[in-house]
Sequence to fold (177 residues):
Amino acid sequence: MKIILISGKASSGKTKLGEYIVKCAINNGLRAIQTEYSKYLKLYAKEILGYDGSRENKPRKFLQDLGSFIRYDLGDEHFFTRRMLEDFSVYETLADIVVISDVRLIKEIEDIKNSHYKNVVTIKIKNYHSEYELTEEEKNHITERELEDYDKFDYIIENKSLVDLDNFAKKILEGEI
Fold:
């Protein structure tokens, strides 16, 4: 099973690139799944706040604070990666490719790379023209800042257009890059 980890700041195009990779994989006869570390946080937000999953009503500060609480206050920095690795035991029977489209922390990369899964590709996506605005507090949260200087990505791409993202997805699946 190939695992593709996509990192980037808020609204950089992580989810869209993941969608394109999955679409290209399926078009090439592969079984592909797109997932997120934040799915657990979003489930909690749904249960606690009634969050409907929409981008417009996204309780970003709540999600950031809850993630920090779990990782640091509860003392379980591996909570999300451990749960994802458990999910992989199911996915590996159902998928050739798994895309995690919301990687935000070094541990979320390194825990997967150091697991028994060896076919791991890391991508950092940059978008300097993001239309989604964060508060200063949200911009300075660890999940927005930790990977700024991380230099172990396999690919760093700039999101200039949806066409560029789609072309990158095709190239990465066809082994051209």
About this structure: DSSP finds eight helices and five strands in the chain. The helical segments are 14-27, 39-49, 60-73, 79-91, 106-113, 136-139, 142-145, 162-173. The beta strands are 2-7, 32-35, 97-103, 120-126, 155-158. The chain has a mean pLDDT of 90.
